[in-house]
Amino acid sequence: MPLVSITRLRIRSPWYLPAFFFYTLRASTQARAAAGNKAVQLLPDARRAFWTCTLWTDLDAMRAYVSAGPHRQSMKRLAHWCDEASVVHWEQDSLALPSWDEAHRRMQAQGRPSKVNHPSAAHLAFQVAAPRGATTRANTK
Fold this sequence. Notes:
Largest sheet: 5 strands, antiparallel
């Protein structure tokens, strides 16, 4: 059964954006080439927040991606770069990516915060801001 993975990261300072963009490019390229990946969508949002939505054939495929290469390297830095970070996963019957509105709804209802070294008040309260004006779906591979 296909697995959807959503992340939201808020970069706490513009100082970290160049390195974040570098790792984002590498990790998204890695995801698109990963075995079991069906789709990748990125959404730059307001106030240095960024969403990712990936679709996988199963949990094992997603875990193999997360624990290897550029993604693994970037994970070591995100706790320092971010003041908000969250993740949610769910299985679904369809290979269609959810809308960003659905991703936000699921994040707020079923998601969990990730560890950050400098959490914002919103992170501590697990208040995830909705993505602005994003109701589109991504194309699959």
